[in-house]
Write a structure and sequence with these properties.
The chain contains four helices and six strands, in the order H-H-E-E-E-E-H-E-E-H. By secondary structure, the protein is α+β, with helices and mostly antiparallel strands. It has a six-stranded antiparallel beta sheet. A hairpin with a 6-residue loop joins strand 2 and strand 3. Helix 3 packs antiparallel against helix 4. The protein is globular. The two termini are 26 Å apart.
């Protein structure tokens, strides 16, 4: 059984974000950091080398027999876009209704992709994060 590569680390979230080379992306990452902290009430942790996560749960996959810990929600300021891990209500009617109000974004691989925060409505994004976070906590009994 393969070991999960992306794990919670003790690396500094601030140092990671401060090293984002693109000034606008770094500014957006700092804004997302505040937004996620405010919405979840959780302390941010680094997951692997490039993901900022909030909260965590333990999972066991029946298909692959893999198990481990994973964040309840989070984001990564990648070169191409801002990647948000807000999976708790993925493909629900409420999720889809909020996405219609969000603004410019893409979906794929269970993630929400945004080019820049200015492309989306922050209040709607906040609702998506909150509802997803609560749904993940409920689903995983955290």
């Amino acid at each position: 059984m393969a070991e999960v590569k992306t794990k919670e680390t003790k690396a500094s979230v601030r140092e990671f974000i401060n090293k984002v080379s693109d000034t606008k992306k770094r500014k957006d990452a700092l804004a997302l950091l505040k937004l996620f902290k405010d919405v979840t009430g959780e302390k941010p942790k680094m997951w692997g080398t490039s993901i900022v996560g909030f909260g965590k749960y333990h999972y066991k996959s029946e298909k692959s027999k893999q198990e481990g810990d994973w964040m309840l929600t989070g984001f990564s300021p990648r070169k191409q876009n801002l990647t948000l891990y807000i999976l708790g209500m993925y493909k629900s009617d409420e999720y889809n209704a909020l996405l219609k109000k969000l603004g410019k974004h893409k979906l794929g691989g269970g993630c929400l992709y945004i080019n820049k925060l200015a492309d989306v409505h922050t209040k709607v994004l906040s609702q998506l994060i909150k509802k997803s976070f609560v749904a993940m906590k409920k689903k995983h009994k955290v």
